[in-house]
Structures are given as C-alpha cells and as structure tokens.
Target: ATP-binding protein
Amino acid sequence: MIEFRNIGKSYDGVRAIDNLNLHIAQGELVVFIGPSGSGKSTALKMINRMIDHDQGRILLEGREIYSFDVRELRRRMGYAIQSVGLFPHWTVERNIATVPQLLGWPRERISQRVSELLTLFGMAPEQFRQRYPHQLSGGQQQRVGVARALAADPAVLLMDEPFGALDPVTRAALQLELKRVHQSSGKTIVLVTHDIDEALLLADRIVLLNHGQVVQVASPLALLSNPADDFVLDFVGRADLGIKLLSLQPVAPLLRQQRAPAGAPTLAEAATLREALATLAMHRTSVLSVVNPQQQVLGSLHAADIFAPR
Model:
C-alpha cells in the first residue's frame, strides 16, 4: 500500500529523516512515535507531499507519489490533525462535505455520506448536521475533523497527533472510537503520537524513531517483550513495563468456567488483564465475575491466574 524506500530529508544540512525503509500494508494501522524532533511528523507529511523528501522513493499502491498530481494524491488520503481546522462559518455538514463537493459528488450522495459518518461517530445526524463548530465540544469537533478526513472514502487516513489537545476522558473515548472505526472500515491508517500508551492501544505496528532513524519496528507486544536496546526500553517505560504488557493481554484465556462467589465485583469479558488487576486492587479481592455485554456471567477470573507462569 505505502512503501518508503531509502527515504531521506534534510533541513539546512541537518538530517531529519535518514534512510527510512518501511512497508505499510493495506488495512494496517501504523503508529510513528518518538521523542520531539525524531522525524515522526516529517515522515507522515511526506506521504501526501506536504513535505517533499530529497532522497529515495515513496510508493502508493506501487506508484511513485511524484507521478500523481498533488491534488489527486491528497484527495486519495484523508488528513486529520490536532487543531482540527474546521471552517468556523460552515456547518458540520458542509465541513464534512468539503472533499466530496470538490470531487463533484451529487448532493444526495453527499447528504447520505454525511449522515453515515455522523452516525459512525455517535453524533445523531438530525441533531448535529446543521450546527457550527463553536456549538460543539472539543471532542465533537475532533470527531467531525476525522469524519471530514474520511468523507470521500480515501484509501489512506493520515493522523498527526489528532487527540493531543483533548482532555484525558475525551481522548480515551476517541481512541476507542478510532480503534472501532479502523476495525469496521479496514482503512489503512498512519498516525503520529508522542504517547506510548496511545500507540500500544491503537497500533498494529509501531515505528519508533530517534534522530530521524528507525530504532525498532514491531507489534506492541513484540516492542514490550523484546525491546531492541536501552533507548526503546526507556521510551516505553522501564518502571511499568509489566503493567503495559498486561494491557495488551485479554482476560478470556484465563477465564475459569466456575462462577465467582456471590457478590464478587464484575468485569467485562472485553477487558484487559491490566483492567482486571486494577479492579481486583480497587475492591481488595482475589476473584472477579466476568460478564458479557448482556451482563450474563461467563465465569470467573482469579488473581493467582494472572501471575501464574505461562
């Protein structure tokens, strides 16, 4: 889908990206992460030619990006950023419809697409389509920004620190929403963040950069289980590495079929072992009752099983 071949980029003789080689498969959610100045946003912006590389080649679906007209290239890619960038004097509907209108879509098709996207992001179309950005919360504005990026059904969605300015509760909700949208749509998504927990939650693969060079490319579990060097270990967090590993492991494999004692706290079957550990600690208990979305009891989870050798 997207391929970086020996990509380099310099600013005033300083290397911002150095020999980047990476293949992003169709349907993958890849996260670029690293310290400030590591080159992660530069790498992202080279994909849609907001920044031009000065060495190597970038391919989109096997075709060199410089062979596309730049407007055509960008219309193939949705782009969502931290500051949202909604047009303040346009309604939600008109903001979402920006690219479809440029592409000449019929009015009925545009209206249908706006309704579809608002519904996808949990915003009732009849309630929100005629509102203006200043009438929305920060989280709602960000939802509209992502909906606008998806409006023309692009092959690729590029996201540069999209949730960075939001409060922790709204940010967590939108992270889960993006994860759900990715799973349901199968879009190829490339996301930049400085937040390792966000990367671990969302990514199929994480690309960790430092001084413009790739330090490690791995799945979240592989990154935590087999850090390439001390820089990776420090970046992901030595002190709570075990807790982060638990956040990637589901409850289901440790579920016992027998019921927990009466009155035991409940835990959703979709929860992670990190969430289970937090619930055990909060209730000062050693066993939880695991339930499905209909609140039917599926079995029990015991603290001893979380720490048992596997």
About this structure: The first helix runs from residue 40 to 47. The chain has two domains: 2-243, 250-307. The chain has a mean pLDDT of 93. The domain at 250-307 is CATH 3.10.580.10 (CBS-domain).
